[in-house]
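Me: I'm a chemist; would you kindly supply a protein sequence with its structure tokens?

Assistant:
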Amino acid sequence: MGFCVCFCADCLWFYEPAQESDYSHPNINQYSRVAVFIDRESCGSNVASREYRALTVTATYADGTKGTPLATWGTNDASVATVNSSGVVTGLSRGAARITASVGDYSASTNITVASSKVVIGTPTPSWPIAGRVLRDFTPHFTVINGTNTGTAADIGTVYYEIQVVTSFTPLVVVVTASTQAGTGSTRIALRPAGSAYERTLTASTTYHWRARGRNYGSKTHFAPGGTVIEVDASPWSNWYMFKTADVEALGANAPYNCCPPANRFSVVQRVAAEIGYPWSGVDVRTLTQKVAEELYVEDNRWGRVVRHSGTLGRDEIAYKTSLGSGYPYVIDIVSGTTIKWDVEGFKSGNTWVQP
């Protein structure tokens, strides 16, 4: 008396006839089974999450004898699919496995193809601004450390990192939601809402909180069967992080006059260098100097660039404008070779100050 191996499933499973070979009994019928990533909406409430649905295989007598043989189940590749003593098969990773049922002297096998491994978009970690940092730039670029994704790049799709900036939790008052495509290692996100050509400006003297998550914004994967595509779930939101914006009187022309020397702002040089990848990504030192000067100018509009007595713009120097020093600017050198620094050079005759 022979038996066959059959599959019982109710959602997104389909069968393909297998070639009749490697049978230990001529009356055994066999089917191939393609396991697919499950779409929750197609399956109804009985699927708790968008993961592999356990597939049940059963052994039945090939000659129509009633009853179910008591089979011993096995798999030839437990890294792709496992099967328990009840015939429940679970796909674990992309690939093919052979599921075998043995009853007495007889056995039957069926091939299972797992079309896609489990896909998870990892939650990013906000890294700037955090810990109550006070911002003087009201259109900042937020920075996150990329999350760790699970699955192949093709299945994950194009990952974007989305941020929410709020002023209140109860109720949740969202000031802006913005996103950008994930970079390498870390990602900078401007406060530019979807569909907007401009960045949103924050308000002075305000406490903000922000969080981030990863998603693929409807970029679909190539899951089987028959070209069926499934959107990957967004990651959970990160924890909330707090920062503040400076008071109006601390900005621009109203900034406290601090000379000389002006306040040591090497932390700004360090942060800007990290954000633009200086010097390891090939960024020119002039780009670093300009961006540092621009950011400091927002804090205090006495900061700027140096024009040397030769008429050329200083390559790696910034300057603080003051009425002291016979009208010459107070100069700070921020790079030596390719090493960033904060080296006070003081008043230098023949130099002039220029707005960045």
